[in-house]
């Protein structure tokens, strides 16, 4: 199967990268063949100003600014301590929803809930949730009395192979199985509310290969493990829609865009910060990074069972449309959950 490069190229960050490359090439051409010193300095300043203006527009992509009043609605956001999850939780609290955030460590969850509530005079509640520990997922779910929107946002990238408390490879265990179990436990409430389930996947799912076993029983590769877990997020949404759509549940998957300033990958050291900071000129801002999640959670234009990016429906990889693979992953996930939670 051809590598789905087209999917990468339609992303705002790719358009921004191509624009940057074009500008560098143009500058080199002008410097060597057209403009002589010292006029090249003036040319460079003008080109940078024009680049910044145009690039700001290119990298941001489309916008979605919700105005829905979410009074009386309960939204759960996982991984809301930092990054896109935190920005999403804040926007939802601004819309007057009761927002429950799942964060590792109860004291930290309460502190962040307080900070978010204060920021927008909203109602944010923090509970301990460790998606790499299925007993913690169960404890969290038992505290929930109502849910209208579940946002499965938390995610990890593991440089080396690690394991969850339940003995699963940690990327798959956290990004997919933790959310699969949480969704499974909350499904009766979601059916009751005709709720939405929003899975934050990634364009990186295109690196997943057809013969993936998802559980990473072969030699470990960070990118493949992450890509597989993000493909699993898409399969989870499509299967949820297929199995429970007729009971009123709506499930969505999405790529939030590239946001270089998040903590994904375990935070950055000083050298990494210096090396990755130039990429920020190709990246969305944090509020823009939350927009496609909000679009899937609230907009009537989002389509259940589909993959979204840049606040619209977008084609996912050909593998992500393989419904047989999606069903196989569902069955594997159910088997894992049954095995691992027998003693709870
Ligand atoms: N940033 C991007 O460019 C990008 C691109 C595509 C997709 N995404 C996806 O966007 C989502 C959010 O990522 P982000 O970029 O905002 O990164 P982030 O700042 O690292 O946020 C990830 C969040 O997940 C939480 N988390 C990690 N392991 C957890 C666990 N075992 N239990 C509960 N929570 C856990 C983290 O909490 P702790 O603070 O406790 O670690 C953190 O708050 C992820 O699903 C990621 O795959 C991001």
From TrEMBL:
Keywords: Membrane, Oxidoreductase, Transmembrane, Transmembrane helix
Source organism of the structure: Adineta ricciae (Rotifer)
Protein known as: Uncharacterized protein
Transmembrane annotation, as ranges: 26-51
Lipid biosynthesis recorded as keyword: no
Family classification: Belongs to the short-chain dehydrogenases/reductases (SDR) family.
SUPFAM superfamilies: NAD(P)-binding Rossmann-fold domains
InterPro entries referenced in this protein's UniProt entry, alphabetically: NAD(P)-bd_dom_sf (IPR036291), SDR_fam (IPR002347)
PANTHER family tied to this protein: PHOSPHATIDYLINOSITOL-GLYCAN BIOSYNTHESIS CLASS F PROTEIN, PHOSPHATIDYLINOSITOL-GLYCAN BIOSYNTHESIS CLASS F PROTEIN-RELATED
Molecular-function GO term, any one: oxidoreductase activity
């Amino acid at each position: 199967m051809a590598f789905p490069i087209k999917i990468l190229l339609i992303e705002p960050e790719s358009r921004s990268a191509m624009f940057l490359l074009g500008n560098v090439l143009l500058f080199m051409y002008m410097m060597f063949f057209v403009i002589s010193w010292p006029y090249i300095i003036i040319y460079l300043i003008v080109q940078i100003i024009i680049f910044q203006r145009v690039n700001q527009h290119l990298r941001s992509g489309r916008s979605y600014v919700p105005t829905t009043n979410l009074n009386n609605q309960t939204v759960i956001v996982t991984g809301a301590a930092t990054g896109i999850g935190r920005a999403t939780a804040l926007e939802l609290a601004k819309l007057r929803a009761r927002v429950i955030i799942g964060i590792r460590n109860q004291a930290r969850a309460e502190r962040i809930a307080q900070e978010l509530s204060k920021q927008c005079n909203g109602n944010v509640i923090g509970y301990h949730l460790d998606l790499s520990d299925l007993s913690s997922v169960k404890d969290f779910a038992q505290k929930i009395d109502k849910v209208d929107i579940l946002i499965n946002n938390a995610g990890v990238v593991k440089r080396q192979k690690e394991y969850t408390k339940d003995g699963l490879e940690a990327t798959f265990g956290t990004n997919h199985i933790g959310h699969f179990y949480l969704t499974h436990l909350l499904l009766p409430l979601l059916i009751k509310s005709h709720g939405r389930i929003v899975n934050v996947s990634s364009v990186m799912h295109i690196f997943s290969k057809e013969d993936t076993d998802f559980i990473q029983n072969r030699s470990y590769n960070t990118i493949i493990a992450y890509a597989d877990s993000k493909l699993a997020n898409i399969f989870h949404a499509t299967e949820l829609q297929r199995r429970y759509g007729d009971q009123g549940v709506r499930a969505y998957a999405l790529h939030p865009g590239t946001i270089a300033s998040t903590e994904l990958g375990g935070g950055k050291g000083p050298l990494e910060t210096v090396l990755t900071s130039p990429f920020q000129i190709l990246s969305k801002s944090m509020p823009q990074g939350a927009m496609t999640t909000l679009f899937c959670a609230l907009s009537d234009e989002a389509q259940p069972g589909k993959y979204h990016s840049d606040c619209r429906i977008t084609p996912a990889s050909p593998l992500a449309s393989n419904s047989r693979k999606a069903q196989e992953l569902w069955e594997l996930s159910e088997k894992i959950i049954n095995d691992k939670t027998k003693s709870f």
